[in-house]
Structures are given as C-alpha cells and as structure tokens.
Specification:
alpha/beta, Rossmann fold, Glyco_trans_4-like_N, transferase, glycosyltransferase activity, Glyco_trans_1
Length: about 400
C-alpha cells in the first residue's frame, strides 16, 4: 500500500502540526507502509534549504519538496502556493493508493483534494483544528466564503475526516459535511530521555536560585494561545516566588504586545523570553519546569502538552485545549476556565504546594507513556486506509 501525505509545510516554525505529520509517516513506515510526504519548502518567513522536485530524506522520512511562492504579503506567503507542486501531483497522484491531506485553507490542501477527486483517488483529511469553531471565527467572512465556495466540496469528497479529540469531532459535526469523522489522537515521537538534574541545570542556565519555581509557556506566540489571560493571571500572584519562561516566537507586532502585557502585569523582571527552542534546550525547559501552562482559546490536541506530561511535568490547560478532558478525568494536571481569576487560582495553588504538583506529574508520566505512543495509532490508521480500498 502506497500512501502520500500532503501538508503545506514541515518546518518547525509552523508548530506541532508539522512535527505530528512527520511522526505519523515515520510510524506508518515502521509498520511496513510505503508512506511519503509532499510539501513546500516553506519555513515561515524564510525557505528551507532542501532539494526541490525529488525525493529526499528529511527527518528520516522520504519527502518531496516544491518551491513555495514567496510574495511580501504574509497572507499570500502563508497560503503556500506552488505551481511545481501542482504539476508534480497531477502527474503522480495515480501512483498512490490513498492520499492523506493535512491542514486546510492552504493551496496544497485545496489543490490536492481537487486533483484526487478529479482522478478518482481516495483521500482522507486531518484538519488539525482548522475546522474548530474558534478557528473558523478568526478568518471572518473570508474563511467562511472559502469554506463554502471551495473547501466544502473537497471535504464532502473525502472518504473520512480524522479528528484528534471529541471536541473537534463535535465542532466538525456542526458543519453538516457528508464525510464521516473518526477520532484518533496524536502521540509522542519517542520515549523521552530523562535529563539528570534537569531542574538544577535549568535554573543555573537562567541564573535563578536552585529552589526557584519555574512556570513554562512553550509554543508559538499567537493570539490563540491565550497569553492575554495567562500573563495578567501571573501578575495577580506576585507575592509568590516564581520565574516565568516564555519560549516561542511570533510576529514582531505580537511580540511587542506580549512585552506590553508583561509590563502591565508587573512581571517583566520575572520573565525570561528565550525565543524558539528545540532539541536539548527544549527538553531541558520542559523537564526542569514545575508547571507547563497552555491557556489556549482553541487547541485541537496539544502536542506540547503531551510532551510535558510524558516527562512528569504537570500541566495547566484551559477547556479549549483538546487534551483538557483527559487531564481532568485522569488527574494529570489542572484545567482552569479561560479567565484571569481562574488561571490565577490554579497558579497560586501550584506554587503553594509544589509537592502536590510533583506527585501529579509522576502519575501523568506513567499514564502518557502507556496510552500515547505511535505504533497503535499507526495500526489503526492503516486499518482506515485499507477500508477505503
């Protein structure tokens, strides 16, 4: 069985979706499926330095990269138009048994579904939260028009739509699409490697006292992440000792808004803005923190939350995060309403009883490693593919 996964970008700059797709394809290949990726050379504001138009191994996955149109206007650039991708796909789509399309409202997703429909190749799609109610509201009338005029026919032509949590499934159901949905979560890339003395090493790197509580936000800096609630909530508990680590990057305009929020909350001197991190630095931040906070308006799954749970770092999430029901039901962390008072209450509780947070983290690690690995998810996905043939 030969499967093509299509996504606008596999760049780390695009967040968890890019990594999840690479992990998914790698897991399918480990199960004996001939799976590949076709994408553009998008790298946020820049372009990846990769070979174009031919198969290359990228992060241990066979990947075809194609040139992305790169105008100055960010909205057009992010749409990821690629004429060379279109030509290649039209010529090669019949070589694949199933096409798996990731991330909607992009040129690659739209043209792939249209070509697959035209050529009679079965396809499924994974929206990665782009059909959630909050996400659809952010584009205003433009996104609704695009959905109804173009993407709805493509979605109705999909054999199935994969969602990663029940909330996403409920949101998709309100759109009255013809395609059936199925819930299949994402998973961990690998079993995390524990860093000895991570807490000590992190505090040394930040020039903090060795017993300083650290609250970590690690994600893209974007309006959907709810920092306009988290930062003021931290400002409500300044009588407590803590350092706030803000790891991620965003547009210059939004980063300026973050700086203003920090100043207004009176926590500029308690905050370390460390920018985009990956690899060992990212692992050290997650493992050395006392609490991982993600107070998003909408997060269809939350890979970064899963990464924190897997190393025993308790999490604070809001109901818009797809993993929130699991966090609440299994006692893996804390779920606060998306308002400043509720978030501040949880933060104060954690800082008052760090031993409780640690015991919750230990339970979270065991549960996550038992239930969120890629092999069983890949096996279920293969069953879905086979049912289409």
């Amino acid at each position: 069985m030969k499967i093509l996964h299509v996504i606008p970008s596999v760049s780390p700059a695009r967040g968890g979706t890019s990594r999840a797709v690479l992990d998914m394809v790698r897991a399918l290949r480990d199960c004996g499926i001939d799976a590949e990726i076709a994408t553009t050379n998008d790298d946020g504001d820049n372009l990846l330095d990769v070979p174009l138009g031919k198969s290359t191994i990228y992060d241990r996955v066979p990947t075809y990269f194609f040139a992305r149109f790169s105008p100055q206007l960010p909205a057009l650039r992010d749409f990821a138009f690629s004429g060379s991708f279109t030509n290649w796909l039209f010529q090669n789509v019949t070589k694949y048994d199933v096409i798996h399309v990731h991330a909607l409202f992009s040129y690659t997703a739209t043209v792939t579904m249209a070509i697959a429909r035209f050529r009679g190749i079965p396809y499924i799609t994974t929206p990665h939260g782009m059909l959630c109610a909050w996400s659809l509201q952010q584009g205003g009338q433009k996104k609704q028009t695009y959905l109804n005029a173009i993407e709805r026919a493509n979605l109705n032509g999909a054999r199935s739509i994969q969602v990663t949590c029940q909330q996403e499934s409920d949101d998709v159901a309100t759109l009255n699409l013809k395609s059936q949905t199925f819930v299949l979560p994402l998973a961990l890339t690998d079993t995390p490697v524990q860093i000895p003395d991570a807490a000590k090493l992190l505090r040394q790197s930040l020039n903090c006292a060795l017993d300083e509580p650290i609250i970590l936000f690690l994600s893209r800096l974007h309006y959907k992440k709810g920092l306009e609630y988290l930062i003021p909530a931290l400002g409500r508990i300044t009588e407590r000792r803590f350092t706030f680590v803000l790891a991620g990057n965003g547009t210059p305009a939004y980063e300026a808004e973050i700086q203003a929020l920090l100043a207004d909350a009176g926590i500029e001197q308690r905050t370390r803005m460390v920018g985009f991190v990956e690899g060992e630095r990212k692992d050290l931040l997650i493992q050395g923190a006392n609490l991982f906070a993600l107070t998003s308006h909408s997060e269809n799954f939350g890979i970064s939350v899963l990464e924190a749970l897997a190393v025993g770092t308790p999490v604070l999430v809001t109901p818009g995060v797809g993993l929130a029901p699991v966090v609440s039901d299994k006692g893996l962390g804390f779920v606060a309403d998306l308002d400043i008072e509720s978030i501040a209450h949880v933060l104060d509780r954690v800082l008052t009883d760090l031993d409780l947070a640690k015991s919750i983290g230990d339970r979270a690690r065991q549960f996550t490693l038992e239930h969120y690995t890629w092999e069983p998810i890949a096996v279920e996905l293969i069953r879905v593919y086979r049912d289409l043939l």
